[in-house]
Design goal:
Helix 1 packs parallel to helix 3. The protein has five helices and four strands. The protein has a four-stranded parallel sheet, with helices on both faces. By secondary structure, the protein is an alpha/beta fold.
């Protein structure tokens, strides 16, 4: 469900920005063997992995699918002044990033609340 919502939102954002979407993944397998929504998005997007060439430009609509930290470092510059959706990887939760950026949860439409505990602050 998260992949479907993120892919739909990124497609809408790309249309609004008059640009081609960017799909950032760890490996090509994630966009060739992943969920249908990701496979469909990969067919119409610039795709980025550790080993791919970088698409040009910024102000893009970017979907980072199951990113690790290094993947986020690749995704964020493309989305500068554009749009960024993230379907997080269980081994690399991005709750801190989501809290600091006030990311919107596409499932419930709510802003991510800042719930830092005193040690994290």
């Amino acid at each position: 469900v998260a992949a479907e919502l993120a892919a739909l939102w990124i497609h809408q954002q790309a249309e609004a920005l008059h640009t081609k979407p960017v799909l950032v993944t760890q490996t090509k397998d994630q966009w060739t063997l992943g969920p249908g929504a990701i496979r469909k998005l990969a067919k119409i997007s610039d795709t980025v992995t550790d080993r791919s060439t970088r698409p040009s430009g910024h102000r893009r609509a970017v979907l980072a699918y199951l990113p690790r930290t290094r993947d986020m470092y690749r995704a964020i510059p493309y989305a500068h002044e554009g749009a960024l959706a993230v379907v997080e990887h269980g081994a690399d939760p991005l709750s801190g990033w989501a809290m600091e950026t006030l990311a919107v949860n596409l499932v419930d439409g709510q802003l991510t609340p800042k719930t830092w505990n005193p040690d994290q602050q």
